[in-house]
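#structure-requests
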Amino acid sequence: MAAAGPRALALLRVRPSGLALALGLGAAGAHLALWGPHAPWGQAGPAGLVLATGGLAWALWAAALLRAAGTSIGPAVLPRVLVDEGPYRLGRHPMYAGTAWLLLGLALGLGVPLLAAAAALFTGIVATVHVPHEEAQLLARFGGWYRDYAGSVRRWL
């Protein structure tokens, strides 16, 4: 992995869950400032609820599997175990994917398009900052096991 710049290092210190929360609150605040409580392009409550609930469940399932395996869910901590079951069979970063789905579901359900932008920004940041760092850690820790896993499982879905 190439040396990270100062901004990337600063973003690595921010937990992805905190990043998602900050982006989501910022998007909601900007929406209120621009449109007030109104949904300018409508709401899709049931579809948004399904997407948001599914994303939250997906991320929590992935986190529970890491905890059950005795490894940290924090991106700054060197992993102790390579988990390749549950949602990790379908994508290497299910907690990030689930968080993005949660933000998209909230955008759809509440009619807050800036939350969709927050989901895109969250995904872009974790894809360019957190994921390369974590994958380098996993490769250093597990070597060929991780290389085989990464070769057979997509990064996202």
